[in-house]
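Long-time lurker. I teach an intro course on protein structure, and each term I like to show students one example going from raw sequence to a predicted 3D structure in token notation. This year I'd like something fresh instead of my usual example. Would anyone be willing to generate the tokens for the chain below so I can use it in lecture? Attribution to the forum is fine with me.
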Amino acid sequence: MSDRRSRPGTGVLLLRGRMLAVLILALVLAAGLLGMLPPTAARAAEGDGIQVLLTKMTPVAKAGGTVTIEGRVLNTGTKPIDSMEVAVRVRASEPLFRSGISSPEDAQSTGTLLRDPKPVVLHNLAPGATQPWTFTVGADTLRLGPAGAYPLGVEARIGGRTAGAARTFLPWIPKNGLKDVQDLRIATVWPLVDRPHRDGTTLGDENQTPVFRDDDLAAQFAPGGRLYDLVSIGTGMKVDWAVDPELVDSAAEMAGGYRVAPPGSLDPDKPKKSRNGKTPSDEDTTKATPNELTNTLAGGGGQVAAGWLERLKAGFGTQPVIGLPYADTDLAAVAHALEANKADLRPQLSEALAESATVMQRTLGRSVRTDVAWPAGGALDSSIVQLANGTGASTVIASGASLPPTRELKVTPLATAALPGTDKGTALVTDPDIDKILAQDTKAPGQGVLATQQLLAELLTIVLQEPSVKPARSLLIAPPRTMDASLAGVLKDVLNASADWTRSATLAELATEPAPLPARKLAGYPKAVRESEPSMQYLTETDNLVRSMQTFASILTRPERVTGPFNPALLRLLSTEWRGDPQGMDRYRLGVTRGLRELQSLVYIIRRTGVTLSGEEGNIPVTVVNNLQQPITVTIAAASHQPNRLKLGDPITVTVPDGRRREVPITAKSAANGKVMVDVQLLTTDGRSVKTPESFFVNTTTIDALTRWIIGGLAFLLAVFSLRAFLRKRREAALAGDTNDEDGEDGHDTPFDAGSSPDTDPDPIRPASGWPPAHFAAPYAGGNGPPDPADPHGHTPSGSTTDRPE
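-- Reply from a regular --
Happy to contribute to a lecture. Here you go:
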């Protein structure tokens, strides 16, 4: 019985032992796998808050030289760290291929921790605190193999485990390692562009002092500013400068004196104020009064802009300069709008190219290339290629992702390629892996060193793929258009450090070489690039705005006063720099639109509620107002909605002086009574509409022939009866005169004047003026006898009467 009980207990113990052994084995395996994980994964698993930053590093290790690595350790956690060690790990067995450099997984170091130099021990690292470290080691002691790029890492270790690491690459050149290697020819584009800072706003003075939307360029042209640093870094380098002439033009305008709009004053949702501080109505043209000194701010960047231009002239030296289209026209947007049949903006592109050469020659005294097309992001499709050929571009800068080889290659293809779909022009193509490195944020702590080392590793690996191939390998580097000073510094460091196996070239030198095989093909247009493109509605509205400005300028006697500031403003609407900033793009377009509309609002026809046309023919008065500071020549055309009832005369061309108004009569002929709608419109002399028509009713009161005969007959009868009454009255007056002559008692009666009118004769009841005569003796008051002495006033006695008959 006891044996049967003991067996189950023994089985349970054995089972538990086996389970414990499996658990221990699992923990051991997990620990081993954790140690085999890449350092970044291990750090994530452990949850340590340690960041290793590289601040300085010897870019290339050479035989007999030394390698110095400097950096900092940052405690990003919430707890202090009592102690840690920082060590260097190198894999010295073999160099990396390009796939190992571009792939983060292959780039992780699995080499050996170096004990020479010894690890640096750090103590008491508080949360948020940093401590520096430095390593210096002889290049030969690293025992690296053949020439190439080797993975190198700097690790922060706590208790024997990696808590943080920085992974990078170390190019290595042994003695005589590059003896028979053909230099890699590198052409570098050095862009100088910025977003537009001006619209068409100017002061109303004779010089039309420009009013900038902001004063940001003043800081960029000053020491420490992005544009200042780009010129400083690029000076002395063998690069192709790609310059937006609009930027140079803005600097020249600033140097000549400029004003700045107050913050927010040019926003389209904030209407301008009139001089009395009130918001004007639509009819109040004071809202379009040009900006004045009192409502703008003084620009503070005139001197730094002038200095920047002088430094730019010196920085160019003898290097080639590419003049981008004025305001860096978005080539892809123009091509896609034309392809979609939404807007034809090719005239603006042609104008921008012509203006490019003019501005650069006028401002810098320098001729430039305008036959290089650089679409946004280097992305191509068939419509962009066709447009580039149409504008005369001999060279097109393209991205490697947009124009890949037709078949997979074991080596990096050359930069020169034929443009697909055409036998004109040459494509210079960038490398997609290098493009990704250039797109990184090199301003972040430690990222500049990492980008430098990765670029150097890529360049050395490319040149070692086929060391003795002829012609020598070529590469195009085209950084982002708005690259900052940190990326510019990285490129300069890379080109200087790689001088042992690279040689700087120009775009023209690469483009003259025949395109190698295999050919390249167009890939699909990148979705991200397409999404950053201006909308078709925006491009259509821009096209309409251009047409509106051209029409308005054609009525002016001095059109350059409007086209001078507004033509460049309209070109800036198509700037590539608006990509990624749709709100800024829309604000700018609305601001330019408002500025032009305000000028157009100064020319108008006074509104009428209605006009009455009496008779069959007459004139309709139309008043044209010109509140501009120059005369205008316009055509006034009127159209009747019912020409069978109201026919209007031909259009009339008039010139209206500046600041005046003029009334123009429009002939009209009516065929029926009633109201007829009339449209009156301002046109150019060639018939283009300047403004929307003004509409009002014309009330015609035409009298037909029958009505005229009836009215004429009634008038005749009235005249006859009036004459008859007059003659009868005259006869009666004559008869009354004869009766007075026969019955009168004396000869002093006033004789009748036959020429007098009855209406002017004295009233027969009232005595005439001057009556009675002076010699006439009035009868005694109250009777025929003399006055009673007792009643000197001649009062009638009581009971007497004076109206009894004689």
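Some talking points for your students: Residues 1-15, 26-47, 272-290, 744-806 have pLDDT under 50 and may be disordered. The two ends are 188 Å apart (CA to CA).
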